[in-house]
């Protein structure tokens, strides 16, 4: 006796779950009853009834569901002969989904819905495309910058082998510029018609990302008719910035994605995961020098300046050499720090937050510190990286409208090394008597030449002054300036493609350590 097949009744529709289509497809070599709504695609295998007509199968337990918000592409599946580029026998529909993996990784996976009916497949294909086109923030056109000189010259390979295929799969049009010299991306962005794109993407290291972010924000000021010589109230960037890590440290990529992984970064862009991020302006009293996320003066800047002088060395060797040499010649910088503390409402303070309690009630009151400092860090974001999994500034956030000011007073080389080693551990790197941390809105840094030094030290410091500048490390980009520096945070000035890593375990652990 021929066995009849049974299709389960469609489940009752929830709010926004009204079925748009229902049909039969073969999935994983099993005939399935498939139901599409605006929010979900669900299917259950079609199983035979028992000879008595009773069904003893649990249909609900076998139901599988895909959230449509996790789908980023849908294609008609065809069989084609070798060399055939168009046409072919229609086999069904392939749906591409963004899948969450361990350690913050994202990957793509394909689900094949097989059905030989042209009309059936085209109807489903149209409805699926309409749903995907309705998602906000998903880019259709991107301006891409690739720095072929980043790190091990891997950026070109990373983009064309790992990222570009995903962009094509998601039907994203791209206009690619492979940069040829430092400042190339900045010059292109100044002339770029940003309204033609939904976003900008940088494939490179921290220095490349810094240049593109600065150029994107500078272009926004130009388009807004602002004087770009000195900006006190900048306008927001008109389009988001995506970061594909292809450098050595990749601080911004780690902070946004929790990991250095090109596919994860690409999928965040494709899915339109938008994260507002604070940015600071880095200026002299009369001129804007840079938009940025992090700045270091002293050891961090001297190390970068020395590494830049040895560009002929391989990237890792250059940075290791510069680190060791700067540590061997460790010297403090004499300067005056003036800062405006962050204003925190009483109800938002915590009993154990010494920084919060210190500045309650100090509205518009500038504080000054003068002394000899081995390093001064100013961070508008936590600055996560593989060498500092908790972040260089774990007591700040991506978009809380503040900056972390971390001041390392003069101390012995041994104690300073202990402080540096703490960044790679779970211990509090600020728990030293020579390290002070503050939460600030603005800061002014005034370097000062010291007196009473030996001839070697005077030569060292006067050489920096004679060049007309002291080195600063701005997001891995070397900036040299002799005059007073003014750094001011601007809340949520740019949107970046990524997630808020404040909720990740690596960041949350800091709350119990500081």
From TrEMBL:
Gene Ontology MF terms: lipid kinase activity
Record domain DAGKc: where: 137-286
InterPro entries in alphabetical order: ATP-NAD_kinase_N (IPR017438), CERK_C (IPR045363), CERK_PH (IPR057465), Diacylglycerol_kinase_cat_dom (IPR001206), Lipid_Phosphate_FormReg (IPR050187), NAD/diacylglycerol_kinase_sf (IPR016064)
Coiled coil: none
Entries under SMART domains matching the protein: DAGKc
Pfam families: CERK_C, DAGK_cat, PH_CERK
Single Gene Ontology BP annotation: sphingolipid metabolic process
A GO CC term attached to the entry: membrane
PANTHER family: CERAMIDE KINASE-LIKE PROTEIN, SPHINGOSINE KINASE
Protein name in UniProt: CERKL protein
Native source species: Eolophus roseicapilla (Galah cockatoo)
